[in-house]
């Protein structure tokens, strides 16, 4: 990305201006180094949870050589904010110090926990790498901090210097998925392939194991661990029988997606084993109904499209809330994805091998180009030697501008066209970073409720409480260990993964009355959550007259589904709770004392 395009002024040589400006340059260089440190810290959570906005924070002094007092990074949505961690680590040294963050704080709590931690700790200055890319959060934390008397400097706006270039780039790269999603309404899509020196991804026979080295394959596992989903085509399933798992020991396992128009797929495949990792098969409407039933019997989700193409698949995954997609497909599908304009970045592993073969496949199929002047050029290209191989990476589409034009909620919500202007307005919620993200069970709001013995227990989120209650009262003596494990889960995502996996693999652990009581369990947790947090209570009441819909395209019980076919029970329960709070049923309002919910 050209520096001039981002509003940078040309660098000034120190020996041509007074010494005071040299000091400013040194001061800015120190600021930039701390912001880059915050960006590097924020990247530590990759591979442990599904990708999310990455936040890192460093608290330090800038006098002399500077000194770091506290650091922190956000592990996942629902865990302690990076800013709070850094403040706690720095303690009394916060007073008069400077806080450095790679991105403007964007609290999902709704009560500005991160911003408040700076103010209460006595931080006097905050340096921010980039503004928050989501329009409903953009600039709000900056304004709040400045209103409270703190000095706030943003790289490229308040600090303009050549020394900030690397730090600003790090801030953009570490949150590239969120930037692309915000500006383009599409997940960040990366095409990865390994090829020989003569540009082949397999021999003429189709044999492809192994082109790249073991070290390169380990890097691929890391790329998978940073992605929400990994996409392959049917030919890859038939010839390679991949597992598509990270195999790196991290906690995050990306969704595995197979695109196949005809469903000409084998009945025996590693991807049909969904005990550890789920699989979605995307196909054309009406393709091999019998095979669709077979996949469903294996626990594989099947999604039909009128016409299967990369653009519609990416749009669907955007609606599903995904931030980043890794494409590990063959030449035909990769060419289609590139032609559709959905690929943002390329990772090409080049092995020092020559295999030849007139008909040996290449990594990208026909693009319709006849002259070299039509070739697509990567930008911001990087080269890295990995064992005997060379990794070449670069962007087909630049990281979006820092001030993307983001449509309003009404423009992006898939509102049913059959609704008339006289119908009640719809309010959609799904991911915690959305405007009404606090309505999500994954929002980071601890609740305190009595267990089966009447003892009060604090749960990190509604999702923790709900998943654990699947096993409360189970006759299986081992159920208690699963409840404790879910209670200790570091994030709502992990709690959900544990609960769903245990329910799927060990149905004998689930309480016998679960299907009849699960909505009651959910309602109790929601009632507690929206009772003990005043700002959430007010937010819920502010939606009076609107229909609340959880915009999950795949959860047809709690969510509204992709085309409105879902039961939307979470939205229904919230509307019921809203009605109760508005006074329709005063007799059942909970008594709240010191964060306890008594029913």
TrEMBL record:
<protein>
    <recommendedName>
        <fullName>Riboflavin biosynthesis protein PYRR, chloroplastic</fullName>
        <ecNumber>1.1.1.193</ecNumber>
    </recommendedName>
</protein>
<dbReference type="InterPro" id="IPR002734">
    <property type="entry name" value="RibDG_C"/>
</dbReference>
<dbReference type="GO" id="GO:0008835">
    <property type="term" value="F:diaminohydroxyphosphoribosylaminopyrimidine deaminase activity"/>
</dbReference>
<keyword id="KW-0934">Plastid</keyword>
<dbReference type="GO" id="GO:0009507">
    <property type="term" value="C:chloroplast"/>
</dbReference>
<keyword id="KW-0511">Multifunctional enzyme</keyword>
<dbReference type="InterPro" id="IPR004794">
    <property type="entry name" value="Eubact_RibD"/>
</dbReference>
<dbReference type="InterPro" id="IPR002125">
    <property type="entry name" value="CMP_dCMP_dom"/>
</dbReference>
<dbReference type="GO" id="GO:0050661">
    <property type="term" value="F:NADP binding"/>
</dbReference>
<keyword id="KW-0378">Hydrolase</keyword>
<feature type="domain" description="CMP/dCMP-type deaminase">
    <location>
        <begin position="29"/>
        <end position="153"/>
    </location>
</feature>
<dbReference type="GO" id="GO:0009231">
    <property type="term" value="P:riboflavin biosynthetic process"/>
</dbReference>
<dbReference type="InterPro" id="IPR011549">
    <property type="entry name" value="RibD_C"/>
</dbReference>
<keyword id="KW-0150">Chloroplast</keyword>
<dbReference type="Pfam" id="PF08719">
    <property type="entry name" value="NADAR"/>
</dbReference>
<keyword id="KW-0521">NADP</keyword>
<dbReference type="InterPro" id="IPR012816">
    <property type="entry name" value="NADAR"/>
</dbReference>
<dbReference type="Pfam" id="PF01872">
    <property type="entry name" value="RibD_C"/>
</dbReference>
<keyword id="KW-0809">Transit peptide</keyword>
<comment type="similarity">
    <text>In the C-terminal section; belongs to the YbiA family.</text>
</comment>
<dbReference type="InterPro" id="IPR024072">
    <property type="entry name" value="DHFR-like_dom_sf"/>
</dbReference>
<dbReference type="InterPro" id="IPR037238">
    <property type="entry name" value="YbiA-like_sf"/>
</dbReference>
<dbReference type="GO" id="GO:0008703">
    <property type="term" value="F:5-amino-6-(5-phosphoribosylamino)uracil reductase activity"/>
</dbReference>
<dbReference type="InterPro" id="IPR016193">
    <property type="entry name" value="Cytidine_deaminase-like"/>
</dbReference>
<dbReference type="GO" id="GO:0016799">
    <property type="term" value="F:hydrolase activity, hydrolyzing N-glycosyl compounds"/>
</dbReference>
<keyword id="KW-0560">Oxidoreductase</keyword>
<comment type="pathway">
    <text>Cofactor biosynthesis; riboflavin biosynthesis; 5-amino-6-(D-ribitylamino)uracil from GTP: step 3/4.</text>
</comment>
<dbReference type="GO" id="GO:1901135">
    <property type="term" value="P:carbohydrate derivative metabolic process"/>
</dbReference>
<dbReference type="InterPro" id="IPR050765">
    <property type="entry name" value="Riboflavin_Biosynth_HTPR"/>
</dbReference>
<keyword id="KW-0326">Glycosidase</keyword>
């Amino acid at each position: 990305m050209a520096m001039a395009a981002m509003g940078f002024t040309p660098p000034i040589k120190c020996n041509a201006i007074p010494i005071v400006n040299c000091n400013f340059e040194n001061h800015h260089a120190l600021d930039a180094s701390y912001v880059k440190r915050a960006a590097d810290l924020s990247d530590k959570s990759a591979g442990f949870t599904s990708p999310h906005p990455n936040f890192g924070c460093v608290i330090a002094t800038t006098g002399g050589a500077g000194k770091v007092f506290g650091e922190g990074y956000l592990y996942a949505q629902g865990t302690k904010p990076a800013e709070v961690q850094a403040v706690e680590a720095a303690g009394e040294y916060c007073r008069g110090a400077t806080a450095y963050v790679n991105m403007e704080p964007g609290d999902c709590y709704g009560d500005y926990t991160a911003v408040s931690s700076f103010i209460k700790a006595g931080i006097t200055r905050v340096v921010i790498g980039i503004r928050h890319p989501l329009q409903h959060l953009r600039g709000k934390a900056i304004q709040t901090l400045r209103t409270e008397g703190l000095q706030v400097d943003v790289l490229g706006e308040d600090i303009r210097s050549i020394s900030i270039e690397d730090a600003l780039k790090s801030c953009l790269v570490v949150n590239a998925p969120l930037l692309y999603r915000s500006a383009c309404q599409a997940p960040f899509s990366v095409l990865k392939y390994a090829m020989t020196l003569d540009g082949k991804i397999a021999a003429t026979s189709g044999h492809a194991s192994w082109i790249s080295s073991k070290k390169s394959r380990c890097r691929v596992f890391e790329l998978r661990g940073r992605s929400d989903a990994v996409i392959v085509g049917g030919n890859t399933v038939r010839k390679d029988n991949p597992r598509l798992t990270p195999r790196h020991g991290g906690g995050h396992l990306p969704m595995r997606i197979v695109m196949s128009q005809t469903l000409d797929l084998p009945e025996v495949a590693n991807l049909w084993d969904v005990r550890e990792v789920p699989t979605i098969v995307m196909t054309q409407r009406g393709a091999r109904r019998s095979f669709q039933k077979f996949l469903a019997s294996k626990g594989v989700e099947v999604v039909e499209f009128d016409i299967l193409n990369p653009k519609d698949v990416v749009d669907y995954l955007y609606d599903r809330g995904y931030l980043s997609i890794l494409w590990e497909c063959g030449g035909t599908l990769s060419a289609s994805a590139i032609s559709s304009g959905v690929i943002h970045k390329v990772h090409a592993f080049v092995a020092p091998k020559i295999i030849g073969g007139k008909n040996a496949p290449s990594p990208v199929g026909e693009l319709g180009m006849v002259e070299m002047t039509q070739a697509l050029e990567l930008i911001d290209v990087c080269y890295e030697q990995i064992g005997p191989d060379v990794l070449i990476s670069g962007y087909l589409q630049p990281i979006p501008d820092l001030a993307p034009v983001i449509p309003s909620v009404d423009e992006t919500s898939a509102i049913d066209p059959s609704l008339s202007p006289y119908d009640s307005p719809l309010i959609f919620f799904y991911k915690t970073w959305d405007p009404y993200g606090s309505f999500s069970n994954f929002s980071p709001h601890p609740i305190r409720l009595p267990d089966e013995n009447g003892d009060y227990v604090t749960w990190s989120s509604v999702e923790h409480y709900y998943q654990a209650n699947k096993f409360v009262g189970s006759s299986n003596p081992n159920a208690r260990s699963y409840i404790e494990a879910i209670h200790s889960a570091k994030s709502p995502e992990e709690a959900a993964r544990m609960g769903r996996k245990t329910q799927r693999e060990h149905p004998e652990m689930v309480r016998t009355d679960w299907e009849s009581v699960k909505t009651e369990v959910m309602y109790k947790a929601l009632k507690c959550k929206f009772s003990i947090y005043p700002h959430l209570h007010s937010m819920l009441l502010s939606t009076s007259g609107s229909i609340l819909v959880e915009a999950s395209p795949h959860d047809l019980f709690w969510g509204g589904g992709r085309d409105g076919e879902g039961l939307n029970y979470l939205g229904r329960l919230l509307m019921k709770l809203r009605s109760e709070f508005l006074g329709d049923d005063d007799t059942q309002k909970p008594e709240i004392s010191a964060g306890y919910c008594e029913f």
